[in-house]
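The material for today's practical consists of a large collection of protein records. Getting from the letters to the tokens is the skill we practise here. To make this concrete, we reproduce a full record directly below:
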Amino acid sequence: MGPLAGVRVLAFTTGAAGPTVAKQLGEFGAQVINVESRRHPDTHRGGANQARWNVSPTYIKLHRNKLSFTVNMTTEAGRELVARLVRVSDVVLDNFSLGVMRRWGFDYEHLRRIRPDIIAISLKGLGSTGPHAHYVTWGPNLTALFGLTHLWNHPGAPQPTAEARAQHPDFMSGVSGAFAVMAALIHRQKTGEGQFIDGAQVEAGAGLLGPFYMEHTLNGTSPQPQGNRHPAAAPYGAYRCRDGDRWCTIAVYTDGDWARFRRALGDPAWAAEARFQTLLGRLRHRAELDALVESWTAQHDAYEVMRVLQAAGVEAGVVQDVEDQFERDEQYSARGFLVELREPELGPLVTEGVPIHLSDTPGAVRTHAPLLGEHTEQVCRDVLGLTDEEIGYLAEQKVLY
């Protein structure tokens, strides 16, 4: 059942930020009703491309453990159905552009008239207030706004990278958003009061850059891209290993780390040179040091490099690709992190499991991502109490669409 059994979440989401909040709540037992429409399918379903609606890998990843309820929000009857769902829900979640929920009559002020103790969470790109709150945002322009695009690069590169391709603001705000919902649920349990949670994806992402803000504030400098280098560690970076495009990352911070690193390599003559005996010296000569370190790593398999250095107490890790994670990563296998789902139209596939393990009430991947509208009749019947005749009429009138 999970620790959140009995909590119902009504999710109006698209993209990744809102779905991530709902996914995490669903993994721990909340019933998540994803409110969708065939008129404007989720971007990760494939938009207007009907052939992708139920087979999009990104959608499948983000929407397991959820119910899909399709309703035409442009109709009065559709909005009334949603209002009835609000009355029996605990949380209403959205990450649509500013004004969408208000136009439908489901902004927080209207929601709490329907259910006074409702918890509403809205995850906008730039939040719900301020002069830029109405701006349309997505992953690349958010990472650009909070500085990650600038920093995620090598020194002297002619142009910034487009983005890290990991949608950091979406997923970070999804994690913090789920945390905020839990805090609000605890508050309501104590006081009987609901509340509005205003989340800004850009701020959740910017929280990753605290040390760079401190550098600017304390030193009056503007942090610049460092590539694979670190201002207080050498050697530090990704080093090419024996089999061509195979790499291992290594991090040596202190003189103690350096002594252990030298011993792991068999104390080669170059490691005893005076210029490498202090951190300052290693930083000043890191280009030459990197070349010497790579002359060693290039003779060994990447996993061998990792095992030798880890055994010596030096931080090191193979740069794994997806195949490595399936075939060679013993840790994933031991913890059962990769789980198999059987999608109705796509068939069996493997996806990530729940990364947090509660000893008594663990989360779980219980159901596949829903087909578009898969649970519309179920929600109408079991949650709203509609008869088959009423459901048939609403479907015929394109209200359940």
About this structure: The chain has a mean pLDDT of 95. The chain has two domains: 8-207+339-396, 236-327. The first strand starts at residue 8 and ends at 12. The two ends are 30 Å apart (CA to CA).
